[in-house]
Design brief:
5 strands; five-stranded mixed sheet; alpha+beta; disordered N terminus; about 70% helix
């Protein structure tokens, strides 16, 4: 009976844990969907304004004025489509852009990419705008109605109680009924928000991506160059490890072997000299062990597995010769290779700051959201850093290219210097 009771308790715990995981996933998905709908509202409003501009251009083309102003809204259309691709890439898979479409009216009239962007513009300025508004208004109405019992007694008489604009609350049961309506809004958000976000982003992912008839040779060339840079960086890293082992730990271990052999031969005739040699051998062995640990940390720092990216970056900031402030907000773990790249990028940047910048303070910022990890290392040094020069920056660029990330360096003379890295989280 005791065994059966314990098994039943274990099954109940598993069910509770499973329910907890499901609840957390549902809340997380709904929160991300609301954020995506709200971000889509921005481009949807711009799409609506641009659609009016294009309509005005088409109408005035009858008298010839629109023909002169046509290139401007076409450029705006292509720019807005690029902005939407970047937004979608931040919150999901990358939307591969086609070749730049034309801005001349005659060429645009027969261009397939421009036609696809116009179809997206119409859908996003109507359905996308509606869904974006719902994504913003639903959480507001849910909070208002759910919290209604907390403030309804302070409202003037005959004031509409619900966010729908109907009904008045005269008694506590009425107020609780409004709160139940708020719970219903929450249920709608949890159940429908992810689907609404997919419905809003769907036209952009279908119509703004490069079609099957578009030449992707530039993208293939870019990926080929990225792969070559990654392989080159890997070979350079292997040479660095081999050199560190050969010039450091291996020489120390050879010295240990020589000293131990000499001490063994001297132990009978000169115990004091043998003891000195053994002490030197122990010191050399400890030095070799420290160098091996340094090499191991250079391959993949154990602190990343033990303390995560935030702890690893805190350790780098503590060891930096320049006083360093750290601000990390990365709710979820990234892929191990991405975290390792972020660690080495910050380590190299702090090394450059300590050696060359003359800075008095440095700041490390890390933000993780929408499947992207954005790092920023800033110092108040003399500036003038060259984004194309130096083996350290070249190594950073190669590591980032291996993950299809972006690097931006701003370093005017006199400072400040800001190194910004954008990496996909890889999950």
């Amino acid at each position: 009976m005791t065994t059966s009771a314990s098994e039943a308790g274990g099954e109940a715990a598993v069910q509770r844990e499973s329910f907890k995981d499901i609840a957390l996933r549902t809340l997380s998905a709904a929160g991300q969907a609301i954020a995506q709908l709200a971000s889509g509202l921005n481009t949807a409003v711009l799409a609506g304004l641009l659609l009016l501009w294009l309509a005005l251009t088409a109408v005035t083309s009858v008298v010839g004025v629109g023909l002169l102003m046509a290139p401007a809204p076409l450029r705006a259309l292509h720019a807005l489509a690029g902005r939407e691709r970047a937004r979608l890439a931040r919150r999901g898979p990358e939307v591969v852009a086609p070749q730049p479409p034309p801005t001349r009216l005659r060429a645009a009239l027969v261009d397939a990419t421009t036609h696809r962007e116009l179809r997206w513009l119409v859908r996003h300025s109507t359905l996308g705008l509606l869904l974006g508004l719902l994504g913003v208004l639903l959480p507001i109405t849910a909070v208002r109605d759910t919290a209604f019992p907390l403030y309804w007694t302070f409202m003037p008489e005959n004031t509409t109680a619900t966010s729908l604009g109907i009904g008045n609350a005269q008694t506590w049961p009425d107020a609780l009924a409004v709160a139940l309506l708020g719970v219903g809004w929450i249920a709608i958000i949890l159940g429908l928000a992810p689907g609404m976000a997919r419905l809003q982003s769907g036209p952009g992912r279908r119509l703004l991506a490069a079609g099957p008839d578009v030449d992707l040779s530039l993208r293939v060339a870019e990926l080929t160059a990225t792969r070559a840079a990654a392989l080159d960086a890997h070979a350079t890293e292997l040479r660095r490890i081999e050199r560190s082992l050969h010039d450091g730990a291996q020489n120390r271990l050879v010295s240990v072997a020589v000293l131990l052999g000499a001490a063994r031969r001297m132990v009978a005739r000169d115990p004091a000299g043998a003891d000195e040699l053994l002490e030197r051998a122990q010191s050399a062995a400890e030095t070799a062990l420290a160098e091996l640990r340094t090499v191991a940390r250079g391959i993949l720092p154990p602190v990343l597995a033990d303390r995560g990216l935030a702890g690893a970056l805190s350790g780098l900031a503590a060891d930096c010769a320049v006083p360093c402030r750290i601000d990390v907000d990365v709710p979820e773990r990234c892929a191990a290779s991405v975290e390792a790249t972020a660690y080495f990028v910050v380590a190299e940047a702090l090394t450059n700051i300590a050696k060359h910048s003359g800075a008095r303070h440095a700041t490390i910022t890390a933000r993780g959201s929408g499947g992207r990890l954005v790092l920023s290392v800033e110092d108040d040094g003399r500036g003038g850093a060259d984004a194309e020069g130096g083996s350290g920056l070249t190594g950073i660029r190669r590591r980032i290219a291996a993950h299809d990330g972006d690097l931006t360096l701003t370093s005017p003379p006199g400072g400040p210097t800001v190194l910004t890295v954008d990496l996909p989280c890889g999950r």
